[in-house]
Design goal:
heterotrimer, A mainly alpha (282), B alpha+beta (183), C mainly beta (427), A: 282 residues, mainly alpha, three-stranded antiparallel beta sheet, 11 helices, 8% strand, elongated, B: 183 residues, alpha+beta, 60s Ribosomal Protein L30, Chain: A, four-stranded mixed beta sheet, 4 helices
């Protein structure tokens, strides 16, 4: 039974609650926006090396696009690459050419200086995000669409979880099948292939014995830069700790991993299950 | 370590002493060579050897030891073999027969057939191969009447082989050496 | 009202639910070596105490010999850390090192030394190993080998072999000497020396004795000598040849080859020289017996089928099964300690070469790039094969990794070296 005193403040309480919820909502929207804005210089080098995309508009309008809009979540690869040039934000910044030739060198200093760029990033992004947040707030329709697409993805990923992604290739297959219909399927596969190929080169399978059935599974959390957040998490051991260590080193050595630049796609790569069969042949 | 050196020295000394003694007993018995293709040039003496027909005044060796006579096939002491083979080839039949006859006519004579192999392959296998070769020569002289009690077969395998680069060189190492006691 | 709240709650929970967990499969790998940097240990001791070779060089040479490590050049790196606090990981990632070894050598009272070392994971920026040794100056090399073993085991999961010993025969100035040395060829000591040939040394399983064949009696005779006391016995001096001794895995018997009954045949005899028993009966040459690690079979060379091939029979004798089928001449079988691989000498058009056969699949791989190879034997961890070959007209020792990728020549002894055999881990 609501007492008299509390009855009076009910509406204030309600308003306050709504406000807090709204703020939280805003925060979530903000956090989603983060990904789309990243000028991913280093990651883009990987993209270039892999596929000369037919969509390649070589030099459309580079300097005039510092911040890709949320309305165009699917970014053309070359466009974003070009935008890398005028934006040397992340600490050591050799030219794109140098980046292609000496892949490793730029990769390592950013790793060590992680603490520095990270606080820098949010500051940089925030001024840009505000206009978007406003837009989102004033656009409940777009918001609902976002909700629904995210919920749809949840359902799918839960399905995948039930099929035990750690244990079977079926998990990834159903994910692929489920997404085959969507136009992103090709992109997803491409990035999965890029990631797989890059890490594979670093897997020292000599430390994994000769048994073809040996399997190791790691889960990694990825940042938009392609770097691994924290440490890879060992999900399934191979039974040989030297093999597990070698695989973990391969993952770490492969940073930054090639990840898509669009929020939509990247969101699927934020947490990856990596299943290794080092002694197997395709 | 010192012990083993001392042992080796003592052993070597003992062996040397033995062989020294043997040298003094070197016989100069004449030989009856019934081989068809023999090149005997010394007078044919009595076949009965047990009568010690040593030349009086052994220091004046008028009779040339057929085993050492370069004109005598008996001075040839090596039988050569093909790679990884231990068959005595036809071309060495005369030589083998000559030595067989020598043994038959000199029942006190003792001979060692030393088998060798070229340096290729494993030492142990070559040791066995050398042994097979020396046994092959022994069997060949057995057939002609020579007794086992006069014959010893040993092998050096590849231990005496040279460092070779061509077949002519390798060929030289694939042999059995015929060495008479007290030589 | 409830509906909206539901969506709001979902939003709150999104970070937890919305894990689009893609699975990426990585099949296969590139066979690589672990790049390791070994910084020369700092030395705070008198020059007389310190070994000529910095400990880091011995460790590096050991790891390189294994074939699983790429030992990086550290001279160009600006920082040369010796303690953990001096380590700047970025220096080491920039030369693509995955592991780093640092250490110090300090004087202790009583003319002793303290060796400290650390093994660090450069990628994870964490310490993997830290150890201290209190030793005499004479033990420096042995300590370096132990450190190399520890690093090797930590990173590969396999037992290291750098503290093991090898034996071989050195022929110099007309003399033969049977020697025992460290696995890297250093610290050689003579076990027996002779003017006549010495061949076929064989380690007892506990590493305390060597059986060998000596021609000192002008014929091949088998001796068994204690490495501890220097005492030896004549194991076999039967009529004819006595050779090819090899120990049973439990150390109680040896298989030997006698020509007692004309052809080389295989016999088994107790380690004290009693209980002779013939176990092979063929008309050809049966030699080079080698017990399987489980003691159940004996592998051997036989030319019963024409040319020499490798066969296997039960350890007590019986039906022999042929094991090698490629080529006309396969000899000198030696098995790895896990019994899965067999190394041997194979005649190829290019000469006599070390090869390895997978006993389960029968697959054969020729390993060496030299052509007058002899006497192959496995390192106790099965990863390397030690053998003798001829380089420049002189016998030399060489090692090749079991996948053929890494080939090394061992330290030159100065003489003509042959008949190597790798000791077991207890050495």
């Amino acid at each position: 039974m609501i007492r008299q005193h509390e009855k009076d403040v009910v509406w204030q309480a309600g308003a306050f609650t709504a406000l807090v919820h709204g703020l939280l909502l805003a925060l979530f929207l903000v956090s989603f926006q983060w990904k789309t804005v990243q000028p991913m210089n280093i990651a883009q080098v990987e993209l270039w090396d892999s596929v000369p995309s037919p969509k390649a508009d070589p030099i459309p309008s580079p300097p005039s696009e510092p911040a890709p809009e949320p309305e165009t979540p699917k970014l053309d690869i070359p466009k974003v690459v070009e935008s890398a040039k005028p934006e040397p934000k992340i600490a050591p910044e050799p030219e794109p050419k140098a980046e292609i030739q000496t892949k490793k060198v730029p990769a390592t200093p950013p790793k060590v200086e992680k603490p520095k760029p990270e606080p820098v990033k949010p500051k940089e992004e925030k001024p840009k995000e505000l206009p978007k947040v406003d837009k989102a707030k004033t656009d409940p329709e777009a918001l609902k669409k976002l909700q629904q697409s995210l919920l749809a993805e949840d359902a799918q990923s839960q399905k995948n979880d039930l099929v035990k992604p750690a244990a079977s290739p079926m998990g990834s297959k159903t994910a692929q099948v489920a997404q085959a219909g969507s136009p992103n399927a090709g992109e997803l596969d491409k990035y999965k292939g890029l990631i797989s190929n890059k890490i594979k080169q670093h897997v020292n399978k000599q430390l994994c014995g000769a048994d073809k059935s040996i399997k190791v599974t790691f889960m990694i959390a990825l940042m938009p830069t392609g770097e691994v957040m924290g440490r890879p998490k060992l999900i399934k051991e191979s039974g040989m700790s030297s093999c597990d260590d070698a695989v973990e080193r391969a993952i770490l050595e492969s940073q930054p991993l090639p990840v898509p630049s669009s929020a939509d796609l990247f969101s699927q790569f934020r947490e990856l299950n990596l299943v290794f069969r080092p002694n197997d042949t395709n | 370590m010192k012990k083993s050196i001392l042992m080796s020295v003592l052993l070597a000394a003992t062996l040397a002493a033995c062989s020294n003694n043997a040298v003094k007993e070197k016989p100069a018995a004449p030989v009856v060579d019934s081989s068809k293709s023999s090149q005997v040039s010394q007078p044919i003496a009595s076949a009965k050897d047990d009568v010690a027909t040593t030349v009086p005044g052994s220091k004046n060796e008028v009779v040339v030891n057929p085993l050492k006579d370069p004109n005598n096939i008996l001075s040839k002491r090596s039988v050569y073999f093909d790679f990884d083979k231990d068959e005595v080839k036809a071309e060495f039949r005369p030589l083998v027969e000559a030595h067989a006859n020598y043994l038959v006519t000199n029942p006190n004579a003792k001979v060692i057939f030393q088998g060798n192999a070229d340096a290729r392959g494993s030492r142990e296998y070559n040791l066995s191969l050398g042994q097979r070769r020396s046994v092959a020569v022994k069997k060949a002289v057995n057939v002609l009447g020579a007794q086992d009690k006069q014959i010893e077969t040993i092998s050096y395998g590849e231990e005496k082989a040279k460092e070779c680069k061509d077949e002519t060189c390798y060929q030289q190492d694939r042999r059995v050496d015929i060495v008479y006691e007290n030589e | 009202m409830f509906k909206h709240k539901f969506y709001l709650i979902l939003f709150l929970l999104l970070p937890i639910i919305a894990k689009a967990e893609l699975t990426v499969e990585v099949v296969g790998g590139a066979a690589q070596q672990i790049p390791i940097a070994i910084v020369p240990f700092s030395v705070q001791a008198s020059p007389t105490q310190i070994a000529q070779d910095n400990i880091s060089n011995v460790i590096g040479a050991d790891l390189r010999l294994s074939g699983l490590f790429r030992v990086l050049e550290t001279r160009g790196v600006t920082s040369q850390p010796h303690t953990l606090s001096e380590v700047k990981y970025s220096d080491w990632t920039s030369i693509q090192a995955q592991a780093l070894t640092i250490g110090t050598v300090e004087s202790l009272p009583g003319n002793r030394l303290k060796i400290s070392f650390r093994l660090l994971d450069v990628l994870k920026q964490s310490q993997l190993l830290a150890m201290e040794f209190n030793i005499t100056p004479a033990q420096q090399r042995a300590t370096a080998h132990r450190i190399a073993d520890m690093i090797y085991e930590k990173l590969t999961g396999e037992k290291g072999v750098f503290a093991t010993r090898i034996t071989y025969v050195n022929k110099e100035n007309g003399r033969y000497s049977l020697q025992v040395a460290d696995a890297d060829g250093f610290n050689a000591q003579t076990v027996v020396s002779s003017k006549e040939p010495l061949i076929s040394p064989s380690w007892s399983p506990d590493g305390t004795k060597l059986a060998y064949v000596s021609f000192e009696k002008k014929k091949p005779v088998i001796f068994v000598q204690s490495l501890v006391s220097g005492q030896r016995i004549v194991l076999a001096n039967f009529k004819g040849n006595n050779s090819a001794p090899t120990w049973s895995p439990d150390g109680t018997k040896l298989a030997i080859v006698l020509t007692y009954s004309a052809n080389s045949q295989i016999y088994v005899i107790n380690a004290d020289g009693t209980g002779l028993q013939q176990i092979s009966f063929s008309n050809g040459i049966d030699t080079e017996p080698e017990w399987s690690p489980d003691g159940a079979s004996i592998y051997f060379t036989s030319n019963r089928g024409g040319g020499p091939q490798i066969y296997r029979m039960p350890a007590s004798g019986g039906d022999a099964k042929r094991v090698t089928f490629e080529g006309a001449y396969n000899v000198s079988p030696h098995l790895s300690t896990d019994g899965k691989l067999m190394t041997f000498i194979k005649q190829t058009p290019a000469g006599f070469k070390v090869a390895v056969q997978d006993l389960a699949t029968g697959q054969v791989q020729t390993l060496s790039d030299t052509s007058q190879d002899e006497s192959p034997s496995f390192a106790p961890n099965g990863r390397m094969i030690l053998y003798a070959t001829s380089i420049g007209g002189k016998g030399s020792l060489a090692a090749v990794s079991v996948d053929g990728r890494v080939k090394q020549r061992l330290k030159d002894t100065g003489g003509d070296v042959r008949e190597p055999s790798w000791g077991s881990s207890q050495n």
